[in-house]
Structure to design on (652 residues):
């Protein structure tokens, strides 16, 4: 484990335990099967990053009440809901090292359990009694479903632009990070300027987080990410490293990359040669630089806050998003 | 067309037009594909019964503003979302006479479009600014997803009791009717007693509506219902006519019914003989009587209102739920 990861975990250990407990207590299913399916994805060792961000942002804004853990579950329930629906999209076998729910049970059961988690998130949002929070959560769900549809629609489309990519990752990832940070500020009764600053923090962190995730698909092996390297590519999902490399490569390399992309049964050797081309044509370095730039913007949003241990943890989390290996 | 249907349609003609327009105007998709998939199910000639109930209930409570059409779309969006997810469950080919969305596109696209519709419903609910309404909508979604999972879990289970069945149809159907009527009252600023009376009206109407629907599966042909007779049976979905008949039939007939139920490839002749047994052992008559009893309870809930054209239409709709043929 890196020093940075250890430092963060030590600082948020108590919060993570409280969040874990809240996730179990607030699920509140009516039927046992719902509990099983939702629990299968919920309690498979997620990082709890989204609820943690909400709790930390509320505290940064001076909130000291005891409702944040309950409200923070919204962001993990929403996240788990999209994972359940995504696994259907992606056709993956494993998620967080466990067999995906739609294989343990079946597609409809996984979809309906996702619906339930979505509804739980919205119910708990309704319990805040804060219209701003409720609207934020509803808009997150709208954006996420549309981002996923867009991504699906553009599968295998080699003309996908960097702007299209940014649009997709904003919808499918950044809005949830942004919503978690924003809700933390809203629950704390922060001023509009502070709410905006933390929304911006979440937005840029979310974009960087997704870029780092997309990079991992080309740079990590099975054991640490819990899914096969090259999975995005196999699904025809074009991400920034490839989009950038395609835009820069000479025609001969471009055609070699497209040929690999268009054959979902590409070999390990072909994948390695694709990664080499991504490196050679700047796709990896460009994506790393873009992710780093968004982390910088995220950290800049925190400058309006006085230096404090809470601000430092958020800064550390932002830095860690760039270097994480899983 | 029956006289009753004609009378109702004449009375609500303007409302239906306004609702239709609101459904198109409030969908508000960000990407074209979302609009296509959601529109495929939304604009295939639905009855708009749920939004209509909301509008009529608000007016019965004295509401004369112009926000009901927008808010009423919530109930059609939620309904359409569950249809999109249900078609995945049911494996049907046709819905409202059109090829189902998960065949025109694919499973993931249909699921994500359903998520979007769900989210739109919740976003519009958030726009009411009424916490009661928002909580009602969030709870509807929780209940519906759980009811569907329960139904799926119990597929082919010949021990399903009448109570289990009531639990499922309450979750999957009655909560949405109840929520539509309740929201109409809430938007109109009705007293708690009135809100409760209209919630009860919706609850009983929803139960009766689902019972009538379940009866149609045994009594209607392809042309009028838009799906094959016996579809529920083919999916192993036990509904009240069969549950009741199984509980009453002598062992020899019980075994004949179970044999047909357990063979999804039953022939037309076998289906006809099953329907005969349902009639012979009181399954059809009992379900009709239960549906009629719930309609009576629904109408009783309206007795606290003074006689008015609006109350009469709601009474007529309740009566029509029993006799409708599609």
């Amino acid at each position: 484990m890196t020093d940075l990861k250890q430092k963060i975990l030590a600082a948020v250990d108590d919060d993570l335990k409280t969040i874990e407990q809240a996730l179990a207590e607030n699920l509140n299913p009516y039927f046992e099967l719902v509990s099983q399916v939702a629990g299968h994805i919920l309690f498979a060792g997620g990082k709890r990053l989204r609820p943690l961000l909400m709790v930390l942002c509320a505290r940064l804004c001076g909130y000291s009440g005891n409702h944040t853990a309950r409200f923070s579950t919204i962001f993990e329930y929403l996240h788990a809901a999209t994972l359940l629906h995504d696994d259907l999209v992606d056709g993956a076998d494993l998620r967080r090292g466990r067999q995906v729910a739609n294989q343990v049970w079946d597609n409809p059961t996984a979809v309906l359990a996702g619906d339930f988690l979505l509804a739980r998130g919205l119910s708990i949002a309704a319990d805040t009694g804060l219209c701003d929070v409720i609207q934020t959560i509803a808009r997150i769900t709208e954006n996420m479903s549309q981002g996923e549809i867009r991504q699906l629609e553009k599968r295998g489309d080699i003309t996908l632009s960097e702007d299209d990519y940014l649009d997709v990752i904003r919808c499918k990832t950044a809005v949830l990070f942004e919503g978690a940070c924003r809700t933390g500020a809203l629950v704390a009764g922060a001023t509009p300027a502070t709410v905006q600053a933390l929304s911006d923090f979440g937005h840029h962190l979310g974009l960087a987080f997704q870029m780092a995730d997309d990079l991992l698909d080309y740079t990590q092996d099975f054991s640490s990410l819990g899914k096969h390297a090259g999975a995005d590519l196999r699904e025809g999902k074009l991400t920034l490293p490839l989009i950038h490399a395609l835009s820069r490569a000479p025609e001969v390399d471009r055609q070699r990359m497209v040929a690999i992309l268009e054959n979902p049964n590409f070999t390990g050797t072909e994948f390695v040669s694709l990664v080499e081309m991504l490196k050679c044509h700047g796709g990896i370095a460009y994506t790393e630089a873009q992710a780093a730039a968004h982390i910088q913007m995220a950290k800049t949003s925190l400058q309006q806050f006085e230096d404090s241990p809470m601000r430092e943890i958020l800064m550390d989390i932002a830095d860690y998003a760039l270097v994480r290996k899983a």
About this structure: Strands of chain A lie at 94-95, 98-99. Residues 234 and 263 of chain A are 8 Å apart (CA to CA). Residues 192-219 of chain A form the longest helix (28 residues).
